[in-house]
Amino acid sequence: MMKNILVTQPALPPLDEFVELLKDIWDSKWLTNNGKYHQQLEAALAEYLGVKYVSLFTNGTLALISALQVLRITGEVITTPYTFVATTHSLHWNGIKPVFVDVDPVYGNLDPTKIEAAITPKTIAIVPVHVYGNPAEVEKIQEIADTYGLKVIYDAAHAFGVNYKGHSILNFGDLSILSFHATKVYNTIEGGAIICHDEKTKKRIDYLKNFGFAGETTVIAPGINAKMNEVQAAYGLLQLKYLKENIRKRKEVADIYDRELDNIKGIRTLKQHPNATHNYPYYPIFIDEKEYGKTRDELYDYLKANNIFGRRYFYPLVSEFPMYKGLDSAKPSNLPNAHKKAEQVICLPIYPDLESDKLEEIIQIIKDFKG
Ligand SMILES: *Cc1c(COP(=O)(O)O)cnc(C)c1O
User: Fold this and answer.
1) pTM listed for this prediction
2) Whether 77 contacts 124, CB under 8 Å
3) Conformation bin of residue 290: beta by default, left when phi > 0, alpha when psi is -120 to 50
4) Which DSSP symbol is given to 229?
5) Ligand 1 center from residue 368 Cα (angstroms)
6) What pLDDT digit, counting tens, does each position of 30-45 carry?
7) 9 within some domain
């Protein structure tokens, strides 16, 4: 029987190189709390990404929950429903009311032309997502934020290493968060980070992720424990060495999909933003059931029957989950573009070591299944 092909498969560093670093950690007996590898990885990532300050976290969700605390966000936050649930849950965990605004039909990012209508006296911030690694409309969002005195925190979980107009996308907004989960382009097994632009904020972030300790006996804020450990930081340093090559391999996969799928009627591939570099984290396709002759779910199930496990990111929309469905802004009539995307999307397998015969097989199945 054919081996299952999943939507992603993590790239791991060479085991022997990791074992060397593990030996060093074993010798030092320093396992966490801002150790040597933690410091090295923060510096290496800041350089790789082209940003000023990186604070490592246990995962992307804790980074986002903490980022909201760093800026003391309360009240209402404008955000997108077309995302992974962690974006919205992080607001909820801070007692913040999410206010959903629709996305643009091309990239699926927060539509800046619809933001102003959603602002109320309680609005404190905007939390957009760079969906599938395509940059959100950062300039327009900043203009609105400046006009209304709002903070901007980007959920950049998909946008590791993405540059926009020659600079890191992570330099926009007040803060950005990254996820280094096993399924992401760059992984530390679990992990994440907050990116900030000044030393004072960096300090506050680092206090908050360590219970609020600012010294042996000084606690300056009700912090949390969200520190990355030395084993994962060391693993992360190794991962960085192989990242460019892994992104190049992802691009090869994406290029073949583009070439083969673009001309199938009823299948739309994702447009890449012209002003950005790309990291190919996902390969979403959007099925127009009238033109393709089969529904999205029929294709999804058929792929599954052939041991190919795509994922419907992002279906259901976050605004459809029971804890958010009752909100005024969650009404489907408020979010037509997001609903259309959620109903049409399948993310196809993409990862550096996806074998070319498997890739061809996936493409052939999609071609043959067309009604
Ligand atoms: C993966 C992801 C997160 C959560 O990151 P974790 O590291 O898994 O906690 C948040 N937002 C988006 C958009 C994601 O894709």
Assistant:
1) 0.98
2) yes
3) alpha
4) P
5) 34
6) 999 999 999 999 999 9
7) no
Which structural domain, as residue segments, surrounds residue 259? Answer: 243-369
Q: Are 48 and 71 in contact (CB under 8 A)?
A: no
Percent of the chain at pLDDT above 70?
99
Reported as a pLDDT band with limits 50, 70 and 90, residue 2 is low
Can you name the residues that pair with 123 across neighbouring β-strands? 76
Boundary-marking domain end, from 239, 259, 274 = 239
56 lines ligand 1 (CB under 6 A): no
Determine, yes or no, domain membership for 125: yes
Q: Which two tokens stand for residue 195?
A: 């990116």
Protein residue with least CA distance to atom 2, ligand 1? 157
pLDDT at 1 over 70: no
Question: How far apart are the CA of 157 and the centre of ligand 1, in A?
Answer: 6
Tell me phi and psi for residue 75, to 5 degrees. Answer: 70, -125
Residue 3: its pLDDT value, please?
Answer: 81
CA distance 278 to 276: 6
- The closest-lying atom of ligand 1 relative to the alpha carbon of residue 192 is 7
CB of 318 closer than 6 angstroms to any ligand 1 atom: no
156 shares a domain with 304: no
52-74 mean pLDDT = 98
- Phi/psi-derived region of residue 135, left when phi > 0, alpha when psi is between -120 and 50, beta in every other case: beta
76-79 and 97-100 beta bridge pairing: parallel
Grouping H, G, I as helix, E, B as strand and the rest as coil, residue 297 is: helix
pLDDT digits (tens, 9 = 90+) for 299-323: 999 999 999 999 999 999 999 999 9
The answer to whether position 314 is within a domain reads: yes
Residue 179 CA to ligand 1 centre (angstroms): 5
Q: What is the pLDDT of residue 316?
A: 97
